[in-house]
Amino acid sequence: MYRSKDFSLMDVINVNGKRLGFINDLLVDFNIKKITGFSIATYGFLKKNLNVGIGDVVSFNSVMVITATTEESFLEFKNIKNMDVRDEKGNILGMVEDIIFDKISFKINALVVSMGFLSNFLTGKKIILIKDILIGEESLLYNGRNPNLNFCSLPHKLFMEDDLNEKDETEKNI
């Protein structure tokens, strides 16, 4: 799985080796629930933004190599980031912080929702599946179908003893 921060500020070059700029955002399509491409901030004097579709990406590791760009307008993740996530009763569950998507198909799997510093520290961030989200003008609606299923991300090191490997401990208990 990838997150938006895995691509943030990654250098972008074309197949001829010319440096075009760096990735400053993801292009998303919530209708098909996929990452459709990347927004590139150029290094040039005029600083125009270019977009590249997933189909035009040759490879990426520490640098993304592409074949073509476009200046068309698309929905960017930054337009959704920091939006409130509300439940069916109108209660605010938190703010969108990140997006989680598949490594091969670039299909969006979930959103990471932050509930504030203290709450994130104590209970972790919420992971909300994309199928339970409806996007609106000013906020996202969460219509969670199973209240017994709750995903969250907890600080791993807080719950580990020093120099203890979980895998070794699990094998001892078996």
UniProtKB/TrEMBL annotation:
Domain of life (superkingdom): Bacteria
SUPFAM superfamilies assigned: PRC-barrel domain
Coiled-coil zones: none
Gene3D superfamilies reported in the protein's UniProt record: PRC-barrel domain
Domain PRC-barrel: 2-71, 76-126
InterPro entries in the cross-refs: PRC-brl_dom (IPR027275), PRC_barrel-like_sf (IPR011033)
Protein known as: Photosystem reaction center subunit H
Organism: Clostridium muellerianum
